[in-house]
Design goal:
The protein is α/β, with parallel strands linked by helices and 279 residues long. It contains 14 helices and ten strands. Helix 4 packs across helix 14 and helix 11 crosses helix 13. It starts with a strand and ends with a helix.
């Protein structure tokens, strides 16, 4: 049995042949050592149920950007699935596999974090260093939009209805926000929780302009850096791209770009791809 995993900072989606989607927390090796990854896997009844049947695992994850971090994930998986052949790669490769249509393209991730590359079907080209995290990068990601909403809430710059909505639904105080951001672990995941306000909150015009401004930053920093960017389709994975495709297409048009595939949950395409490799 083949098992594939698409892991971001917030959650990991697991899908096995003939099985249903299983979710665990995100298993970013920047935050979780091998033993912690094993403990999180051991909490999942769904993974326990297929543990003995899994023969091959293809794990794609955020933070898997060096041999050392690949090994952290590998050791955690190997402890839980000792009989499986295990392959570990970056979530950028997962996005490329899930959206590639045979043409050279730009591929972006807009989830808890963000990233972008050029892909030609075999090789990933970053041009400049990508994936700088929620403090130095992650434009138009869930953590980026959550940070901007929290900042505007703290400065009392939000429309009143949105300010009241966030207060009511998240029981916010300045002290709680500052403690979560500066003292608790995984501040990026905490801030990304508030991106849900983009879809569920009031003041739709305000939200749509906030989204467009974030997308403009993404295109400025993460798309325009690639030579010939306007000649390639731009594909995306992630919930932010999925929920705001119209705004994404508007901004892309401003930069002379065309949006191609937008896949909210690439794990299904990943399983299909790896099944085809063994036929």
């Amino acid at each position: 049995m083949i098992l594939v995993a698409d892991s971001g900072s917030t959650k990991t989606s697991w899908l096995a042949q003939g099985g249903e989607l299983i979710e665990t927390i995100g298993l970013n090796p920047f935050y979780y050592p091998s033993d912690a990854i094993y403990r999180e896997l051991a909490k999942s009844d769904g993974l326990h149920a297929i543990r003995e049947a899994v023969k091959q695992i293809y794990f794609y994850g955020s933070g898997v950007s060096s041999p050392e971090r690949i090994d952290i994930v590998y050791q955690g998986l190997k402890k839980f699935f000792p009989a499986a052949e295990i392959h570990v790669d970056h979530d950028m490769m997962a996005a490329c596999i899930a959206t590639y249509d045979g043409r050279p393209c730009i591929v972006g991730i807009l989830g808890t974090g963000s990233n972008a590359c050029v892909y030609d079907g075999g090789k990933i080209d970053y041009t400049i260093q990508r994936g700088m995290g929620y403090i130095l990068g992650d434009e138009a990601s869930g953590s980026y939009f959550g940070r901007r909403l929290l900042q505007a809430w703290l400065y009392k710059e939000l429309p009143q209805a949105t300010y009241d909505y966030m207060q009511e639904h998240y029981d916010l105080t300045k002290e709680k926000i500052l403690w979560a951001v500066y003292n608790e672990p995984h501040a990026n995941v905490y801030m990304a929780r508030f991106a849900k306000v983009l879809t569920d909150g009031p003041d739709r015009g305000y939200m749509e302009e906030l989204v467009r401004s974030g997308f403009r930053e993404f295109f400025e920093h993460d798309v325009k850096c690639f030579a010939g960017y306007a000649s390639m389709p731009v594909h995306f994975v992630g919930s932010i791209a999925h929920h705001f495709r119209p705004q994404l297409e508007q901004v892309a048009q401003q930069y002379g770009c065309t949006i191609g595939a937008v896949d909210r949950q690439p794990v299904y395409k990943l399983l299909e791809y790896h099944e085809q490799q063994v036929v």
